[in-house]
Amino acid sequence: MRGRKTAAMFSFRAALVLCLAVALGSPGQVQAAPAKNVIVLIVDGCSAEQYAFARWYKGAPLSFDPYRVGAVKTFISDSVIADSAPAASAFATGVRTSDKHISVGPHKKTISGVPAPADDVQYRPFATVLEGARLLGKATGIVATSRVSHATPGAYLAHTASRSSEDDIMEQAVHQGVDVVLGGGRRHLLPRESKGGARADGENLYQTLQSWGYAVVENRQDMLKVSGGRVFGMFADDHMDPEIDRPALHPDQPTLAEMTRKAIELLARDRDGFFLMVEGSQVDWACHANDVPHMLSDLLAYDQAVEAALEFAKKDGRTMVIAVSDHNTGGFSIGNHNSNKIYSQMTVENLLDPFRRMKTSGYQLWKSLAEKTPDTLKAALREDWVMDITDAEAQKIIALAASYKNNAYNALGEVLCPIYTHVGWTTHGHCGGDVPLHAFGPGKPAGGVVDAPDIARVCASAMGFDLQKLNRRLFVDAAQAFPGRVAVDRSQPANPVVKIATAAGLTAELPANKNFLKLGEKVYPLEGVVVYAKDTERAYIPQQAVNLIQGTRGLPRITP
Ligand SMILES: [Zn+2]
């Protein structure tokens, strides 16, 4: 989907897509591609127990309940417990990688049972199913309630060894040419000097997007008005609000389901089909904090987003939908030490009543306390959660909160759930168990217990391309293609530039995290982003750039 189209462009494009199809898979495979569209919906940090709890609360089946086909093993290459970055990387690339890695290969240290990676695999970028879809001419989209540069969306948009390199992730996200991006994280589009800006490299990617013809929108009304073309919706400088707090704090932020419906509406105009990833980002944080109202509201918001995707897929008939989580968080349980000997008293009302009364997330309740004293806390709990706690309990929460520093609100659920509710938590971190897998439509996984990287392979084969071929096409080790002729200019540390001496005596410049090549005064757009792996000091460039530098293939040039 690239804005204005003419009949002539369509026929040119059809030919181009056929060529790409030949390059990415065999033409036969592409003809036989079972799905035209793929929608992957990830609820971060969630598992079967939270689903069951949300179902009781909703009083009806969850939208994805009928489509549970199996489970996913979530371990990563260096831990039995997944971090969101490698977990989403496995879903995006089909490669099991290390803690904190965003769609690059693992480092050498692995857990037993996971073979150590070869040298040329470590830290190497691996192509994502979003990049594969785009090369097939499909429209692409990303929706999240976190910053879109956060771990899960980041793994579909970028390649970096550290999930905290969010400036780099956002820069690659912009240069990926994704058609629809909706979520939070505006600060990573703007330079530090600007209001709300975070970028250390001084770039204004907000302006870049506008100059490329993107509609950049910042509220629900403007998002709903977008009727075509490419759109970047940035609804918060940081993350979007917890769903339970959103109507009071920022009613102009869209819901996850509204963003999902708009993304599908825009992407479905592409006659080649589309790939869309939607993340219900905040169930994970809610579970980290043992914050039930936050968890419940965001999980039900995700349920509605999946419903929107399934509604489209059922009508369309050529759309595969996968609904899955990346790992569990918090060790949530229906039942705790308070309830495990009185099953007959565990009615639906006893389970749900404390939560039905809660009007805010624990996160927001804590944040809204100007002074954190036992008295202010007791008053806020009485008002927001309709819960009367004792002085001793209030003091215990305040003391525990101090030990959690930045995550002080962790103390609320940890202290109060065992006393006033019948739900339990075992940790403020992630858990290593399997997570349920839901799938619908043509090309869906057969089921059973599958490996996390299988999710990417299922998506690629549903759309009819081969991830291995895609890797060779998008990420060539520049030093292998041009031995002795590659240098990385790091004089501006936030803006490394890969420089390659050409046979004609010129220097080709490829700025890292961007999608173009400069040769003399000419600028050539590239079909993928340039990735510089700091840890191995290797640079990866599209095969297209190699061809251009070797002069084996000309391309239309654009002026800078
Ligand atoms: Zn996660």
Give structural notes.
This protein is an alpha/beta fold. The chain is 38% helix and 17% strand. It has 22 helices and 22 strands. It has a ten-stranded mixed sheet with strand order 5-6-4-3-7-1-8-13-2-14, sandwiched between helices. The protein is globular and about 80 Å long.
Can you tag this structure with a few keywords?
single chain; 560 residues; alpha/beta; ten-stranded mixed beta sheet; five-stranded antiparallel beta sheet; 22 helices; 22 strands; 38% helix; globular; disordered C terminus; binds zinc ion
**Number of DSSP helices?**
22
What share of the residues lie within helices?
A: 25-40%
Gross morphology is globular
Q: What about the largest sheet?
A: 10 strands, mixed
Write the layout of secondary structure elements.
Layout: H1 7-24, H2 27-31, E1 37-43, H3 48-58, E2 68-73, H4 84-93, H5 129-135, E3 139-147, H6 151-157, H7 166-175, E4 180-184, H8 205-211, E5 215-217, H9 220-225, E6 231-234, H10 246-249, H11 256-267, E7 274-280, H12 282-288, H13 292-316, E8 319-324, E9 328-329, E10 333-334, H14 348-356, H15 362-367, H16 374-384, H17 391-404, H18 410-420, E11 423-424, E12 430-431, E13 435-440, E14 448-451, H19 454-463, H20 467-474, E15 476-477, H21 478-481, E16 486-489, E17 497-501, E18 507-511, E19 516-519, E20 522-525, E21 531-533, E22 538-541, H22 543-550
The protein binds zinc ion (ZN).
Care to give the gist of this entry?
With 560 residues, the chain is of the alpha/beta class. Zinc ion is lined by residues 44-45, 84, 87, 284, 326-327.
